[in-house]
Write the structure tokens for this entry.
Amino acid sequence: MAKKITIKHIAKIEGHATFWGALKKGDITEAKMQTLEGARLIEGVLVGRNYTDAPLVTARICGVCPVVHNLTAIKALEAAMKVKVAPSTVLLRKLMMYGQFIQSHSLHAYFMTIPDFYGRDSALDLLKLAPKQSAMALKIRGFGNKMIEVIGGRTVHPVNSQVGGFLKLPEKRRMQKLLDDAQAILQEAVELAHFVSHRKFPNFRRLTEYIALHNPKEYAIYEGVVKSTKGLRLSPRVFAKEVEEIFQSWDLIKRTKFRGRIYLSSALARINNNWRQLNPIAKAAFKHLKFKMPIDNSFYNVFAQAVEIVHCMEESQKILKRYLGLKKIKPMVKYKIRPGQGTGAIEAPRGILFHYYEVDKYGNLKNLNIVTPTAQFMNNLEADLAHYIGQVKKFGPKEMRKLAMLIRAYDPCMTCATH
Amino acid sequence: MPKKKVKKSKLDKSKKLRISIAGLTSCEGCSFAVLDLGMEFIESIDHFDLGDFHLIMESTKKKDYDITFVDGSPLTRENIKTIKLLRRRSKYLISLGACAGNGVIPNIKNYIDKKKAVKYQYPEIYKQVYNPNIRPIKRFVQVDFEIPGCPIDARDFITVINSLRQGMNPKLLENPVCYECQINGNECLLQKSEGPEQSRGGQPCLGPVILGGCDAVCLNSKFFCKGCRGVIPGYDTRQLEKQILKNSSRKELNKILQVFGIQEEWYKAQK
């Protein structure tokens, strides 16, 4: 006899989604997630428009990670038109990325996921249950937002970053203020990471292929090559070309496979691939839990995010210092519009994001494609869910919560996936 | 200051008002802008009974709300049902941001061949994809108030809920973006040449006719105004259009107007 379990609307994730699984005498037959978002056709409406629209329009794919779409579009267009930006521009963009990580992670790894560990439904309850940590998480998030605002001009949908550099340089005074505040925030981030590490994570094991960007010089976020725990090493251009987008008539998300395999791209995948390159304080916080690598419990994605907040705080301090030490800074390089194709890849808070553009000689977009992290890990999430349901004998409220927790642990972004 | 008669709202202010922040299809940036207020949001919302805000809580499944904010545009059949249901359940319905207010990015497809657009993005399953023209929620239900912007300025959200709590009808600023831009001491982009459209005389900035209240945030970063907050009611756009057409073609102007869905409004304002 088949038994069906459903979650009609999954709260505390970005966007709207529904879940259903069918149980057959303890053997799972299927576990599926479906988006409840409509088709906004971002790719469809951008074709034929001027390239300057791409960073602006693609940022509107997602309200929680607009910076990553904005910058990936810019990087891809720069690759297409062979624009080489100044080193100071790269520093500012990296700071925007760290701001993005800090704000997105502190929302998810604290407010969206921690209430479950207390058996609560609302993040507002946390303010009473853990007032100190809640205040810290808010402050950390505020810092991330501030950093994006100072450099990008606005937190949600930045306007300042463009192809070639920035329209206007951030005020040095405000950058100095960020640096002054950073140390205190870093300490709070460490405390928060410890707080998250002390939660009781459910037991769960399922090994998969973990794919992340890798950069020999640093913990890759802004740039790198595609690397996996199964020995894959490819340039983003080749990976984005080869990755297979699968259409299903019942869902608007184009789930992906790479060479026939499903894989995970997320904070956990980054940690599994690159944890040796974490900054010292973040590494210490990470080692505290004495994991056997690679971590095969997807629930720990939340902890991986908390560690990344610490890492990004340390890295921000370094880069802010370097930026403030620069003498002559040019906001933007001059460039010519020319035809070409380019791929941009960036580590978004939820995994690798790819943008591909083909530009004609007038600067109009001939072709484009966007592959989001959620579309990439969706197959793996469903496999995890099926695996989890297979282990459970009887479904009560406790098991249902764990199921929702597993979905939330991935930090799925349905608006990105259904762009 | 002369005493003004303040319009009373239809809400009962003797008990905590129940709020819900609901989402249709959008990037949810407006909801995040509200969350980005951090402590200010939490302190303000403490005076209300928050019934539903899916980003941070499970729905309390209450059947009626005093105030409902709607973020996003109706893009699925389910979305259309939802917006009608929300209207029935709420005393005061507010559109949160430009998606709900006038359609924004997805509405570009209203101006192009939308069948081609869906075929481009979903070549294998385009026949199954629901692909309606984008219409703001006010075409489906009556909307009591609109908070403009893509994304909204979160301070507007606070202003609105505080007015309603005091039993007044909310009111936002009604000056053009130009006004705030000049107070901030920015150089005029309409008259000057700089930025991405380097070789031209001036940039097609829409600031003079667009509703302000955003602190000219784009112009503070030297990014010309593309009109996400909509044309101010009663303003004529002809004068500005003449100025813009000196340096840009009609086609270019239309493409700018399409991004935030104000093309219709723009030409309507000339009649």
